Amino acid sequence: MSDNKTIEKKESRRTFLKKTALASTFATLAACGSDSSWEEFFQKNFKTLDDDDKNKIIKRLEKKYTEKYGKKFSVSGKDPIDDTLFGYGLDISRCIGCRKCVYACVEENNQSRDPQIHWITVLEMAKDKGVDLFHSHADYERELVPDDDHFYFPVACQQCENPPCTKVCPVGATWKEKDGIVVVDYNWCIGCRFCMAACPYGARHFNWAEPNVPKDEINPETHYYGNRPRPKGVVEKCTFCVQRVREGLYPSCVEICPVGARKFGNLLDPDSEIRYILKHKRVLVLKEELNTQPKFYYFY
Amino acid sequence: MKFINFIKESSKVILKGNKYYYAWISSLFLLIVWGGLGYFEQLKSGLAVTNMNDSISWGFYIGNFTFLVGVAAAAILLVIPAYIYHWKPIKEITIFGEILAVSAVIMALGFVIVDMGGPFRLWHMIPFIGLLNFPDSLLAWDSIVLSLYFLLNLFIVTYLLYMHFIKKDYNKKIFDKLILLSIPMAISIHTVTAFLFNGIAARPYWNSALLAPKFIASAFCSGPAVLLILFQILKKTTKFDIKQEAIEKIAELMAYSMFLYLFMFFSEIFKEVYSGTHHLVHLKYLFLGVKGHTDLVIYAWASIIFSIVAFVLFLIPKTRMNVITLNIGAILIFIGVYIEKGIALIIPGFSPDSLGQLHIYKPSMIEIRTSVMIFSLGFLLFTFLSKIAVEIIFENLNINSIKAETGTDQNS
Amino acid sequence: MATIQKNIYIFFMALIFILLIIPNTIFGDNEKKETLIQVPPPPFSEDIFPCSECHSDMEPNPERRVLEEMHDDIILKHDENNRWCLDCHDLKNRDKLHLANGKLIDFTESYKLCGQCHGPKLREWKNGVHGKRTGYWNGKKTYLLCAHCHNPHSPKYKKMKPEPAPDDPMKGRR
Predict the structure, then answer these.
(1) Residue C29: predicted pLDDT
(2) pLDDT averaged over chain A?
(3) Fewest beta carbons less than 10 Å away: which of A120, A169, B100, B297?
C-alpha cells in the first residue's frame, strides 16, 4: 500500500507540470463540461484515494451542494458493512403496477425531473404472454391498476454478481462494492455510455442535459456513490439506496410499496427475509442465460 | 535542419494552389465553422441536443466511428500486393492509402470524442495519469490499437515523404518491417472495434461471431472504393498518376472482399431467420419494420441491393475494366457499406432496447452538423497530406529543387 | 416497606416477562433477537372503538340477519355465504374478537383470527414475506396487520390509480 502511495506521489509531482499547462486551457473549457473547478477537474478516481483525500473531496462537495441548494447537505463516504451482501426480492404475484416506487426513488435519489430520469421501469405484461419483454409496455396509462389481464414487472439495476457494465467501462468509473452494490464515481465517468449498451436490463441512465431537481425537493442526505447531485454527461443507476442501506435502513422503494411486494436483506444472513424467500419461494432472475447472476430475485 | 525545411516546404505547398483548390479549402472551412458551432451547442447544453436517449444510447456518431475505422483499416489492401508481392504499380500509390488511414483514424477518434458526455475528462483514459481499464474494457483496447495505428501510419507517411524529399533511399530493413506491421495492426483496429459490439451479450443483434470478419470484409470493399474514387479525382486535378493495371488489381481484390462480405451477411440472415428466435426482431425492424415503424427499411434494402449490384459489376471482368461501370460499382459499394455500418449496425441493436421497448431514432440537426465538422476536418487533412505527397512524389518537389529555385531567385 | 419492595420486584419481573413473551407469542421459536414488533393501531373507522360504548346498552341478538339500522355500510364479501358478524366478533365482549375455539383476542392480534383459515399466509407474514415491513433491514422493523391492507369484511386488495407513465424519451428533443 505505502509503495503505491509513494509511486502515486511521484506520479503526481511528475504530472504536475503537465497538469498546470493543461489546466489553463482546460479549466476555462471545463466550464463547458461538467466540472466546475480545476480541483474537481483533476480529481482522481475515488476508489483509488486514501481516506484523507476522500474526506477533503466530501467536504468540498458538501460545501458546493449546500451553497447551490441552500440546504445543509451531508455527503457520506460510508464503506460497506462487513459480512453483508445485499439481495432484493420482488413478488410479481403481488405488484400492482402503481409506480409509487418509481417516484419514491426519484425523490430519495435526486433524479433529474426534467429531463426525466427514472431508475425503476415498471413493465406491464400480458398474462397470456408471460415474462416477454418485447410484448411489455413501460408507458401504460390506466384509470386503475392492476388491470385484470396484465401483471406487472418492475425492473431496476439487478446488482449483478457478474456485471457486464463494470467490465466494459474504459476508465474503471464503475465497479461492484464489497456489499454487492454496483456504484458509479460521477466525477470519473467520461460519459461514453458503453455500460448502457452492455447492461441487459436498461438500468443505466445518462444525464443528457444538466439534471434539474427543484431546491425544495432535493434530498440533502446523500452518499458519494449514491444520490448526491450529478453533473451532466455522466451515467447513473440504482444503488439499492446506498445512503440508506449502509445505515441499516430499507431502500425507499421497499418502504413505499403499498402491497409489500418488495423485499430486501442480507444474503449472508441465513435468518434474513431474502434468504427465507430463496429457500421457500420459487425465484427467477431476469435473463439468467446471460450469466450476469443478478442479486435481484423475482418470486411468486 | 533538413526536416525543418521539409516541414516549411510542406506548409508552403498546402497554402498555394489554383482557384479550385482555394474554393475547395474554403468551403471545407465554412463547413467546419458551421458544424463547429453546432458542436459548441452540444458542449454547452449536453447531449440532449442529439436524438440519442436512454433507450437508443448510441447513434450516428458511433456509426460513423465504426465506418471510419473500416476505411482506416482498408489502407492495407494496397499494402499487401505492394509490399508482400512486391507489385510495383501499387507500391507507388500505397502512401495515399496510408494518408487515407491517418485521416480516417483522426475522424474516427473525433467521432468517439464528440459522443462522450465528458470530453474534457478524456485524460482519464491515459494510462498511469488516469486509469485505463485494461485489459477488461474493449474500449481500452480500441484506444490503444487506434492510437498505435495512427502513429504508425503517420510515421510511415512522414518518413516516406521526407526520404523522397531529401532524395535518399529509405531504410528498407526497418521500413519494410514497419509496413508489414501495419497489416496486423489494420486487422486489429477493425477486429477490436467489432469486438466492442460483439462482446455485448445484452445486445443479441451484435452478439454474432461473424461480426469481426464481416467488418473486415466490408471494410476491404468500402476503403478501396474511397481510394479508387479519390485516385481518379487526384488524377484529374493533379499530376498524380496511377496505372490502369493497379486500378484493375484493386478492383479484383475488392470483388473477392465483396463476395466474402455478402456470404457472411447472408449466413447471418439465414441463422436468424431460420432459427426464428426472439432475436430476429432486430433484423425484422431493419428490413421489414416492427409495430408500424419502418424508418430504416428503405436504407436497409438500399444497402443490400447496392452491395449486390456492385458485386456483380466488380465480378464481371468487362464491367470491372470499364471506367464508368467501375466507378458506379465503387460508389454503390461505398454507399452500401456506409449504410451498413453507419445506420444498420448501431440503431437496430437498440431497437427494441434491452427491455423490449421500441423507440425511434434519427440523428438531430446538431448531430449532422457535428458530423459534418468532423468529416470536413478529415477531408481537409487528407487534402493537405495528399497535396504534399503529390508535389513530392509526382511533381518532384525536393530539397535540391528548392535550392535551385532560391538560386535562380538570387540571380535575377 | 417490605411489601412495597416486593411489589416493585413483582412489577419488574412481570415487565421482563411480558417483554420476553410478546415477541415469542407472535414469532414462536424462530424469532430473531433484534426485531421487536411494533404493530401500529388497527385501522378502525373513526369514532367506532371501543364497540362496547354503544353495545353495552343493547340486548345482544345472536340471530343471523342482515343489519339494517347500524353498520349497513359494511358489505361482507369474505365467504359471506357461510359466515356473518359473530363468527369473528364476540357476542358478549364487543371489544374483542374470538377464535374458532372461543378464545377471546384483542384487535391487535387479529392476525391469529385470519391465520385460522389462511395458515400459509400467516406463516409467510411472520417471516416477512407476505405483507410489508419498514424500518431497518438489520434491526427494528415495523409490521402491519392483515387488516391494514385487507379490509376484513371485503379483503380483496383495492385497485388504485397509478402514478403517471414515464416521459417519452424524446420529450423536449428535436
Answers:
(1) 41
(2) 91
(3) B297
CATH number at A82 reads 3.30.70.20
Read off the pLDDT of residues C5-64 as tens digits, 9 standing for 90 and up.
666 666 666 666 555 544 444 544 444 444 556 667 788 877 788 888 888 888 888 888
Q: What is the ipTM of this complex?
A: 0.92
Last residue of a domain, one of A22, A50, A69: A69
Amino acid found at B348: P
Asked whether residue A78 falls in the same domain as residue A53, the answer is: no
Shared domain check, A175 and A128: yes
Of A23, A41, A69, the last residue of a domain is A69
| A208 and A184 inside one domain | yes
User: Å from B211 to nearest chain A CA?
Assistant: 16
Name the band, by pLDDT with cuts 50, 70 and 90, for residue B241: confident
Q: Chain B to chain C, count of Cβ pairs less than 8 Å apart?
A: 16
Residues A54 and A7 in one domain: yes
Nearest residue of C to residue A255, measured between CA atoms: C134
The answer to whether C166 contacts chain B (CB < 8 Å) is: no
Nearest chain B residue to C168, by CA: B359
Structure confidence by residue, pLDDT tens digits, B64-110: 999 999 999 987 778 888 887 778 888 778 889 999 999 999 999 99
Task: Quote the number of domains for chain A.
Answer: 2
pLDDT digits (tens, 9 = 90+) for A149-202: 999 999 999 999 999 999 999 999 999 999 999 999 999 999 999 999 999 999
pTM for this model (two decimals): 0.89
Residue in A with minimal Cα distance to B131: A171
Average the pLDDT over A19-38 and give the result.
Answer: 56
Give the mutation candidate from B54, B61, B114, B277 for the A interface (greatest A CB count, under 10 A). Answer: B54
A38 and A109 fall within a common domain = no
Query: pLDDT digit string (tens) for C102-137?
Result: 999 999 889 999 999 999 999 999 999 999 999 999
Give the range of the structural domain holding residue A17, as residue numbers without chain letter. Answer: 2-69
Distance from CA of C30 to the nearest CA of A (A): 9
